[in-house]
Amino acid sequence: AHSHQVDQRRDSMATAGAAGGAADLDLGLALLTSADPTAATPATSVLIKLLDNIRNKPDVPKYRTIKRDNARIATVLAVPGAEELLLACGFVNDPASATLTLPDGNVEVSELEAALQGLKDVQSALGVSAGLEHPCPGCRAVEDTHAPRIHLGEAPWGCVHCGQMVCAVCAPATQRSKCPACGQPAGATEEQRVQCLRALIAKFPNHRHVPRWEYQAGLQTMLGIGLPQNPQAGMRLMRQSALGGYSVAEAALAQAYQKGMVGPPNPLAAAQWYTRAAEKGHVVAQNNLANCYSKGEGVAQDYAAAAKWYRKSAESGYSLAQAGLARLYYYGFGVEVDMAEAKKWWEAAAAQGDEHSAALLAQLF
Fold first, then answer.
1. Percentages helix, strand, coil for the chain, rounded to the nearest 5?
2. What is the mean pLDDT of the chain?
């Protein structure tokens, strides 16, 4: 099946080649855009680097020969559209030497510029996420899996080169090594990260990752990470991200309103934003919303509603929610008194290291 697909692609190259370079380029870009993003995103980054080297140093021979037996190159050429694009830029296939070669005189600056701009547009359109649509490339888990560990002091990380998002848990290790998508060194300063995020937001205002970029830039601006602290400006970016539907930003914005990080505490706004994030499955927001209902902060006191949200969060493994649900069962708030259920949920919380739950178990059972 794979051999048949390769033959079909080579037939397509030959057909498009009869129409000239522009048709080949359009075909390559179209195939890349429709390819699997997890393969096409790093391939696009490599292609940009290859063509950029030729544009900047057209007389350097090593940049004009691409070896198929190179493992990384083989991975790139396996992505639909990659080889088509290189052929459109003047490369010639040499089966005898298993190379793609750009002969002297085949370098057309205008074609290189068109290919580079097209690849950058493809890169923007692809943009693999570490959110709900695609797994984090570091751990292969979707971001919400780590929701209990994502709070106001942590953020998913965006590569300053390609915008690839990595979950908050994998971010520290990734920042010390290379981006898993484009392979570029990830060692940017915090200030450079914020500058890059703002540039991405300005350049691609309709990109589907803008809410994530806004959240990360807003968080660093609010807390003064890598630049002078500016809570008001950070709050504006955080709010834009939340309005874009990013649940992590919704939960963080709610916490900022609850704690009065910019202006006096606003429990009503906090409860509203916790609700939006909780309905999307953010387990920390679910627990915090349950607290709001339990205490009557920003909403009418409603123990049944508190039990509902504690349960959703507890069933996802969040220890604070497990302890909160145990407390409701023990006292019969919003649920029938059930000592067995209370003990079960306190045990679950204690097993995760909640010392207060462990102390209650020792005291009450």
1. 60, 5, 35
2. 80
